[in-house]
Protein: Hydroxymethylglutaryl-CoA synthase
Organism: Prototheca wickerhamii
Amino acid sequence: MAVDAPSGRPHAQPDNVGILAAEVRQEDLEKHDGVPSGKYTIGLGQQGLSFCGDREDSVSMCMTVFRRLLVRHGVDAREIGHVQCGTETSVDGSKGLKTYVMPLLEEAGNTDVEGVDLVQACYGGTAAVLNAAAWVESRAWDGRYAVVLCSDIALYAPGPARATSGAGAVALLIGPDAPLALERGLQASHMQHAYDFYKPGGPYPAVDGPLSVYCYLHTLDTCWARYADKYERRTGRPCALDAVDHVIFHAPYNKLVQKAYARLWYLDGCRNGELGAALDAAGVGAPAESGAAASRHPFPPTSMPPGLEKYLLTSAFASYDAKVRPSTCVQRQCGNMYAASVWSGVAQLIETTGAALEGRRVLLYSYGSGISATLLSLVGRRPTSDAHAARFSLDRLQAVSTLAMRLARRPPAPVADFLAAAARSEDLHSSGGAVAYTTSWPDVRDLAQGTYYLTKVDDRFHRHYALRE
Ligand code: ACO
């Protein structure tokens, strides 16, 4: 598909999903939890989950990906004028994550850096990207780059949600003339009050799993309808899923991503009136109405006729394979990374697709419980300035990306280590947070070079970090 790529517009150039010290394989967790084999690997579609020992936290992960972004792309710390962090697992009730990463810029004498943290469930990173892009477009812009850091640790209480735990961080460089541009005007949101997932206190979130799944899918319906209307007003052409080459979803677990894409495929078929005959032929309309009638009024996610969801998953599978799977590997292996989840998909897509993204449209669905959600599109392009093309072209980004290698190198950890990490999180909450505490695991030698880690929290709650050289 060819798309007119805007130039000189703000856009995101993603890099460096934070890879954690250890991973748990979902098969081992199934055995430990005593659930039937396949419940997590097939039922939830997950291969593993990431977690942190006591040496890593949301701050250290932010510092790791931020430093790697600067080093790998030869960005001088003085070229950064704006930093925002999206997180819901900060380490302090007042002092933002952003302040903890400032030493990386301070050492170059750069303290003229706007931006603070944004907290709104899994949506904080997306809010930060939109703010950073708005800063580049604004009267406040001074020609420098913005950086967005998304970092989170997802840890659930024992029960069905626990297998969807995870952790990860992503750093994004935002500026003009970049290889993935936010499409002007093609952005639709849905914001609403709901108690599907929240953190009133204690070591674990309060989560209504079925409600959160319903809210995620129903919000997608609303965002797609609004996006499609805007697309049609803007381009004068009918909006169809064919106009989209790739779709990246916020990924609590991969099965929900598969269902979300099947739903998008269904909504597209309904909007364009193409589904009725197929549904009738497959016998999956509701008892009271034929597939043709059903396709004019999509069923809400919770009241699909029997067989319809299965039919959609099967029918959309080839399209899912081509448009969605290339962005899902990190998500399937690391679990829910909350604010980092959807943006890890961008980094993954660049690694799998590279320069082939030029001229292609990427749809991105960011969902945060509570509810805040945005469906937006990005377009791949070659930077027009020679300097930017040399540093940030998609083929170069692909060439320097090492995600698959770093994922493969993660040492598998026993379920017992994951449980120990959860127990430690519970202890910290009941004792009011770490104080006068020296970290001990994993062994520093087992951390990848270039990883920041927490060495201790002193008796004034000051946190001390070091770099694994
Ligand atoms: N083999 C294969 N599949 C299996 C097996 C098995 N042995 N056992 C169960 N399954 C399937 C089920 O059929 C079901 O499939 P379906 O979704 O196609 O119907 C799937 O596994 C899930 O099983 P359930 O029993 O329906 O649900 P469960 O009790 O495992 O809970 C839930 C799933 C609600 C998602 C839970 O993990 C949760 O609360 N997660 C946290 C909340 C969340 O992630 N919400 C998403 C959006 S909000 C956010 O990002 C935080």
Notes: The pocket of acetyl coenzyme *A is lined by residues 36-39, 42-43, 122, 160-161, 164, 197, 207, 209-210, 212-213, 216, 252, 255-256, 336, 369 (CB under 6 Å). Confidence is low (pLDDT under 50) at residues 1-23.
